[in-house]
Amino acid sequence: MSSLGPRPSRASAAESSKPRPDYDGLIVDLDGVVWLGGEPIEGAVEAIAALRAHGVRLLFLTNDPSSSRAEQAARLTAIGVPAGAADVMTSAAATARFLAGRAELSGCPAFVIGSPSFQRELAHAGFELVPAAAARTARVVVVGGHEGFDFAELRAATRALANGAQLYAAGRDRVVPTADGPEPATGAILAAVETAAGITATVVGKPEPFMFELAREALPECKRVAVVGDNLASDIAGAKRSGLDAILVLTGTSTEADLCRADYAPDLVLASLAELATRFDPKREKAGA
Fold first, then answer.
1. pLDDT value of position 3
2. Closest by alpha carbon to 170, among 21, 28, 62, 278?
């Protein structure tokens, strides 16, 4: 499988003066960090192996709700990154868990805009999925990005919401980076639903803290954890809002030029995950003790 090279970047004086990272756990975004459109970014597979060899525990965190944790793990394994479902947290799984935790919604009818995997997550969480024709009976509308979104889904969601349903979404990312350029993501679909219904959704995925809290809970043995992502608005903002360190890599959505406009500044800016691996030495402090 071919690899995609990182976007060139200039290392700033401020960045080079920062101490080397010393984390025993990393929450790593997938799109724009590990791969672009499923194609591994240059050096990412080797970087993950090096980090694991240092004893760093990795959890992969993605705002892509179209695939299950097991499916994402299988894709990682296929590019040379051994992973199981427990190594991945998706916005689909986080959304299902969030909604299942709301007692007043337990088992209620739900109209779900999303892929079959996204729908299965909600069904497994106990929700009664209703078709578009019966959307008026839904008590919740849940939105996740998928390639099959159409006017019929938009119309059904609009009518369900007009009838009093609550609106939830797996994320607000407008686009996702791919090898051929950006593609519309959950946020683009959600914008259509919110515009048609005239209401604002409760969002569960990044940058909301709930998803980062789930990811942090999956690394209970780790003392120092950072988030590695390519998107200032979702990865970096979400990490900082959740009290976690944030490392921006410039292989996906955000660029160095975006830093001056960001609401939250990353703790470290690097060209790629590969550069992080070369600078990473979790045993440095112990060796110097």
1. 45
2. 62
